[in-house]
Write a structure and sequence with these properties.
about 250 residues; alpha/beta; five-stranded mixed beta sheet; binds S-adenosyl-L-homocysteine
């Protein structure tokens, strides 16, 4: 039997308009679609009614399907000859485990293609009016995970990261916000450093909280995930550049 193919497609961070043209084309012709929790359900309306839909959502600490099972689902359906779209929030290769999925496919000789997506790391700050670089305030940025389980595996050296770049973007960091700010403070980052927490970015529920390293934990209490954290002087531009709230 002819092998199918797996397309790893980035769905963007929420706003359906941020799906790429290539992603939309593949979504419309997919025979099988395997999607994540962070994918906007509106995008699934583009999938043909005859396609098989498989939810592979994961929630922090609570795994619906193990990664190895997701890999197997992709492999099995491609072996049946199907065109499989693996739709992931944001970009598949930015904290999306896309690398692991294509490794599994490559190991067994399943053809695949990567369709990059608009990552929340860039789009969410943008919708909140925060440029990651700016000629006056920032000539570098880094994107790191604030997820504890991942920190245990490969400890983020917060002091070094914070010293190395002008703008720091933290994904999966909301739960550990207090720990992250403590870490930064204890390594000499100034307490008045600007920080923003942008929740449910690029959706109608987007919410931005701006503060300093010293007061953000109190200010952001009760804010919903998913959220992107941005640290650095560019955050100061937020109030002037926040077009999204203006509608
Ligand atoms: N591959 C994704 C990231 C997956 S990790 C991407 O490129 O965007 C999941 C983290 O992404 C969340 O914990 C949060 O930090 C961030 N995130 C994803 N969508 C978001 C959104 N709409 N608003 C705010 N943060 C978001």
């Amino acid at each position: 039997m002819r092998l199918g193919k797996v397309y790893l497609v980035g769905a963007g961070p929420g706003d359906p308009g941020l799906l790429t043209v290539r992603g939309l084309e593949l979504l419309r012709r997919a025979q099988v679609i395997v999607f994540d929790r962070l994918v906007n359900p509106v995008l699934l309306e583009e999938v043909s009614s005859g396609a098989l839909r498989i939810f592979a959502g994961k929630q922090a600490g609570r795994h619906c399907i193990a990664q190895s099972e997701i890999n197997q689902v992709l492999i099995d359906h491609a072996r049946l000859g199907y065109e499989v779209v693996r739709l992931k929030g944001g970009d598949p290769f930015v904290f999306g485990r896309g690398g692991e999925e294509v490794e599994a496919l490559a190991d067994v000789g399943i053809p695949f293609e990567i369709v990059p997506g608009v990552s929340s790391a860039m789009a969410v700050p943008a919708y909140a009016g925060i440029p990651l670089t700016h000629r006056k305030y920032s000539s570098s940025f880094a994107v790191v995970t604030g997820h504890k389980a991942q920190q245990e595996r490969a400890t983020i050296e917060w002091a070094k990261v914070a010293a190395a770049v002008d703008t720091l973007v933290v994904l999966m960091g909301l739960k550990n916000l207090a720990q992250i700010t403590d870490e930064l403070l204890s390594h000499g980052v100034a307490p008045e450093t600007s920080i923003a927490v942008v929740s449910r970015g690029t959706t109608k529920d987007q919410e931005t909280i701006v503060g300093t390293i010293a007061d953000i934990v109190d200010k952001a209490a009760g804010i919903e995930s998913p959220a992107v954290i941005v640290i650095g002087r560019v955050v100061e531009l937020q109030q002037r550049l926040n077009w999204f709230a203006l509608g």
